[in-house]
Amino acid sequence: MADNRYFEDQPYEVENPFNIMITLSPFDIDLSTTILMPKTLLEANLFPFMDISFLVELLQVRNKPKMIEVFDIDTKITTFLTMKEDGNNFKFHGRKWNNILERKHYKAGDTHAFWWDLHHTRLNFKHVA
Known about the structure:
Blueprint: E1 20-23, H1 26-29, E2 34-38, H2 39-45, H3 52-60, E3 66-72, E4 77-86, E5 89-93, H4 95-104, E6 111-117, E7 122-127
Parallel strand pairs: 3-7
Antiparallel strand pairs: 1-6, 2-5, 3-4, 4-5, 6-7
């Protein structure tokens, strides 16, 4: 893996067609440790940028979650969540997700942008509405 300490964090770009816009549902909020993202959205806007070996394991070994790095661009805090396929969605799960919700006082209806940071090989996110 390349040394990424010389690269700036990839900022949120409003016009990026690969942004994954997720509006939090009550399921994502109420003491939740899970956020759901539609499979079709991830297949179009995330998977093309991810490492192929990660995707093969994620998609071919059913019910075996994969760890993914998730980075809050505003607070510069990294969280690790597990990701696994669940029907027409992917579940991102971890106790730290609830910590993020509580710390930032997010509520159902809030919209977050998620985007892949190629230099840091992680999923960045930002509260946008």
